[in-house]
Amino acid sequence: MGSLIERAARDLLRSNYAIALTGAGMSTESGIRDFRGPNGIWTKDPEAEKRAYQTYHKFLRDPKEYWEDILGGRSLLGNLENTKPNPGHYALAGLEGMGILKSVLTQNIDGLHEKAGNKRVLEYHGSVFKLRCPSCSSRFKREEYDLERLALEEKLPPRCDKCGSPVKGDVVHFNEPIPSDVAHESLEEAWKCDLMLICGTSAVVYPFAQLPRITRQRQVEQERKTESGLYFVKSEAATMIIEVNAELTPLTVEGISDYLIQGRTAEILPKIVEAVKELSK
Ligand code: APR
Ligand code: ZN
Prior knowledge:
Blueprint: H1 2-14, E1 18-22, H2 41-44, H3 46-52, H4 55-61, H5 63-72, H6 87-97, E2 101-106, H7 112-116, E3 121-123, E4 130-132, E5 139-141, H8 147-152, E6 168-169, H9 180-192, E7 195-199, H10 210-217, E8 219-225, E9 231-237, E10 240-245, H11 250-253, E11 259-262, H12 265-280
Helix pairs in contact: 1-12, 4-5, 6-12, 9-10
């Protein structure tokens, strides 16, 4: 693994615009279960995943009942208020601090990248700490609404301050469109980057899993010379795609990623940052 750590450090130092894409595997070492790993929420309770596919339709059909379920039930991910970033999160914040990492596109709703210090975080599946109005796309901090009082006074669903429509949790449910601002900005990042560091995602949920495939399509024309001295132009992949994951993913198997550093994000990412510092001396 050592040589791959050093290779990733060299690739990061050579890059001009590196971004990170992250999934639940970033947060398991902060005590938050992932979904499809060996102890994943969906792995252990496939019925819960089936129910999760109904949540968005429930909001559209009956926003009051959607909120009664949320306020009356237990969050699948447990109480995220007190969870803390782990060394993997701090490593990505360190890379941003060095000016190497330009953004983090995360599927995680736990807010741990920002807690670790990353400034440019695109929450592709939203945040558990925010509410969002699907009608006018306004977002609100969760504490801007006293949801428990609204429930007691039979005034659910909470309504948007701007347009009066029912608001929902900011978390993007299955079958729910990705908010257009985040979708657009993420696509721009995927097209602009020349290095994509993909950490802790099984890469099976779309449209997020499409982003590395879009990046892989980027080509640059490189001038090359044959042995006989003839010059020619060759089209080559413009982006280095590196995976850090406990297991192989479709990105690994399909050759979308250039290489996989297999193991724990909380162990590997800090080692990569150490190697970057070493090489920068
Ligand atoms: N280090 C490295 N990899 C890890 C670690 C770890 N400490 N812990 C888990 N993993 C790996 C798992 O092996 C798995 O490949 O991270 C991946 C997590 O995959 P998922 O559980 O599918 O999570 P994710 O890819 O983020 O899921 C995407 O699915 O249910 C939806 O909206 C939900 O955002 C989520 C989306
Ligand atoms: Zn609104």
